[in-house]
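hey m, so remember when u said the tokens were messed up on ur end? i reran from scratch. heres the input so u can diff it against urs
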Amino acid sequence: QVQLVESGGGLVQAGGSLRLSCAASGRTLGDYVMGWFRQAPGKEREFVAEISWGGITTRYADSVKGRFTISRDNAKNMVYLQMNSLKPDDTALYYCAASFGGKYKYWGQGTQVTVSS
């Protein structure tokens, strides 16, 4: 079992930046591929970014590529999402998730990001 708690969300103007954090407990984070997802009002949850166990390989949704950066610190059991050049379309509830065996099994409660125009 892994417990995930996100933080760092808030209200920011378009063009601004935020850094989301995800704190994990219960198991060593290095056992998992970690990802960030988001869900905007009235829309389905969508993939944002993913990072491999060792942090070498990353993958991004086309909509955030070049603006967002995912990173992890396994020693601290933390995962981060640096978000730059934010747009109103980035407004959503952002979730951290842990994947084991190819499936995202553990999810946090989410942190709200609101980008004003």
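this time it looks ok to me. The CA atoms of residues 60 and 86 lie 15 Å apart. if urs says something different then somethings off w ur setup not the seq
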